[in-house]
Amino acid sequence: MNLLEIFFRRRVYFSIMQRRLHPLEGIVALFALFLVLALTVGFAQAGEVSGAPRAQKVMLLRSSAVLVQDADTGEVVINKNSEAVVPIASITKLMTAMVLLDSGVDLSMRVVLAREDVDTFKGSRSRLRTGSVLTRDELLLLALMASENRAGAALGRTYPGGTQALVEAMNEKAAELEMTDSHFVDATGLSKRNVSSARDLAKLVRAAHGYPLIREYSTRDRATVTAFGRPLSFRNTNGLVRSSHWEIGLSKTGYISEAGRCLVMRVRLASKDLIVVLLDSWGKHSRVGDANRIKKWLEGHTASQRSS
Fold first, then answer.
1. In what helix (H) or strand (E) does residue 196 lie, and over which residues does it extend?
2. What total number of domains does the chain contain?
3. Quick one: what percent of the chain has pLDDT higher than 90?
4. Exposed site from 36, 68, 162, 194, fewest CB < 10 Å?
């Protein structure tokens, strides 16, 4: 309980004790006290910051589930609903990429995009027309960097044994990583039945960071491929990779309506390697806003520790 709250409570209490209030004054006083209590509880639930002084504990984050974890020690720095199991949208593609690379398939193999690769479930758009021919390597790049759904679907379809075999391998990989909150049903993340928790996704990011190709492709700013003899340019769906203020070692975004805006990263912040997981963030730019708020707090907190 902060000093302002204590003072306000006592002020209201003594006012009531010293004289009999007019009924309207009593209602106003009770409403004001309720408002103070509601704000106190709301701020306390905004985000739990481990190891922070009480005066710095409040951080308003718009993501429904948040986890910031030291990548080396596993120490939790920020935790908000990290155990909640929710849809994860295209974060799924990190698992798709790991299983694909584990299989040792030929990345130089040319793949023709087929009608089966078109998203008829969500109706998401793609600039890759059916009949386009790309290498498996190019499809992997576009799936990770630009979150291209047809690229992800084609990777699943051409996996040895097809998409179903890939999905089975993805769930086996999840079990191997002890991702007990996670379940996968497709290669793209378009289904809301691809679910996980922030604490599980921290495990996924840690494992995916061990693949040099995933690190490179997920953080590349832009890329150009050729389809039907014409160049097609794509950009990374995480604009932070283009910022000179961020040092990002792995990145993946995700969005479907059931999952909200999602973002996972491995970053270098405040002289530490950190895993950042932001799930179900409302608003088009709120996941980036949350990432910047976390960055600002961590850098400020580190600076205050050094000066003290």
1. strand 195-196
2. 2
3. 74
4. 162
Q: Are strands 248-256 and 230-235 parallel, antiparallel or unpaired?
A: unpaired
Residues making up the chain, counted from first to last: 308
Q: Which member of 63, 82, 90, 286 is catalytic?
A: 90
CB neighbours of residue 199 within 10 Å: 20
**Positive/negative CA dihedral, 34, 39, 42, 43:** negative
Residue 203: active-site member: no
Among residues 64, 147, 182, 251, the one annotated as catalytic is 147
Task: Examine the domain organization and report whether 9 and 122 are in the same domain.
Answer: no
pLDDT at 5 over 60: no
Q: What pLDDT, in 10s, does the model give residues 182-229?
A: 999 999 999 999 999 999 999 999 999 999 999 999 999 999 999 999
Strand partners, 48: 79
Among this protein's residues, is 82 annotated catalytic? Answer: no
Domain encompassing residue 133:
48-307
Is 93 a catalytic site residue? yes
Among residues 93, 173, 252, 295, the one annotated as catalytic is 93
SS3 content of the chain, % helix, strand, coil (to 5): 45, 20, 35
